[in-house]
Amino acid sequence: MSVQAAGTPAIFLPLLRRGKVRDVYVVDDERLLLVASDRVSAFDVVMNERVPHKGAVLTQLTAWWLRAFGDLVPHHMLSADADEIVAAVPKLADCRSALAGRAMLCVRTEVFPIECVVRGYLSGSAWKEYAARGTLAGEPLPAGLVESDRFDPPRFSPATKAESGHDENIPVAEVRRRLGEDAANALETLSRLVYARGRDLAAPRGIIIADTKFEFGRDRDGTIRLIDEVLTPDSSRFWPAESYAPGRSQPSFDKQPLRDYLDGERRAGRWNGEAPPPPLPAQVVEAMSLRYRDAFQRITGAPLLVTDSSTA
């Protein structure tokens, strides 16, 4: 079965689901194929334009991190190498160009319905809640904190996985109620371990990982595995260490140029915040592409594998 969306190369496998960025295909009962596109979304709306090389950055950066975490936590990656994927799934031989640099063959798992957020700094939705009520997920935080203050130790701050709309921060006690004590404790422990190593690896590279979200699933043998994307500019807040200063928002290696542009369009009354989105200027698209590639280069120190499918 060939599945193809506009601007996306055909993959000859059944499509399980199409997310805002990733397309997930069924290989068999035990394996999935994840293909990251160059689609970009903001405020829960997918833009019409593609960000060059974004999908390659997300896939290759995730693969780099998972290799770095191999001794720390079980994960779902079997391979992110196109030749290895084709060797494992021969029916994909004609799709190799669509796989190169942006596809990952993975263990299939039953996904826990929780976003495992770890916050090293007070920012984003956490800062908004704290500034309004002095709490995070309804639980009190120390008084006198300012935006971008460092948490020591980092806070495990889970959230719901919303099918539509925004995820919602929830107390850890609610995770225990939903998943049970053992699973909740395991997810928190693994999340903290992965964040700590990621933070320590990024620091000498000049990047602060302010916060991030992880996803986990349980495989057929009962093993809990780290899944989906890991420590990318889409799932994390990366700040340049050289300009960090608490008491204000920080520049970041993500799609902030897009958010800023869309905020301006809303304030000007040219966009109502819903689909369809407004057209994006070329300079906004290029600014995002540069930020994603800069983050990849800083963290890995390696060149990005760019292929003909980089505009998928």
Instruction: Summarize the main sheet.
Output: 7 strands, antiparallel
Number of helices: 8
Overall radius of gyration: 19 Å
Per DSSP E runs of 2 or more residues, the count of β-strands stands at: 16
Helix content: 25-40%
Low-confidence stretches: 1-8
Query: What string, H for helix and E for strand, traces the elements in order?
Result: EEEEEHEHHEEEHEEEEHHEEEHH
Shape: globular
**Coarse structural class:** alpha+beta
The residue-averaged pLDDT reads: 92
Beta-strand share of residues? 15-25%
- In whole angstroms, how far apart are the ends? 19 Å
Overall description:
It contains 8 helices and 16 strands. It has 312 residues and is of the alpha+beta class. α1 (54-68) packs parallel to α8, α5 packs across α6 (181-202) and α7 runs antiparallel to α8. It is globular and about 60 Å long. The two termini are 19 Å apart.
Quick structural gist:
By secondary structure, the protein is an alpha+beta fold.
Helix/strand layout:
Layout lengths: L14 E4 L3 E5 L4 E6 L4 E2 L2 E2 L7 H15 L8 E3 L2 H7 L7 H4 L3 E5 L2 E2 L2 E8 L2 H10 L1 E2 L2 E2 L9 E7 L2 E2 L11 H8 L1 H22 L4 E12 L5 E4 L8 E5 L15 H12 L14 H19 L12
Antiparallel strand pairs: 1-2, 2-3, 3-7, 4-5, 6-7, 8-14, 9-12, 9-13, 9-14, 10-11, 14-15, 14-16
Helix pairs in contact: 1-8, 5-6, 7-8
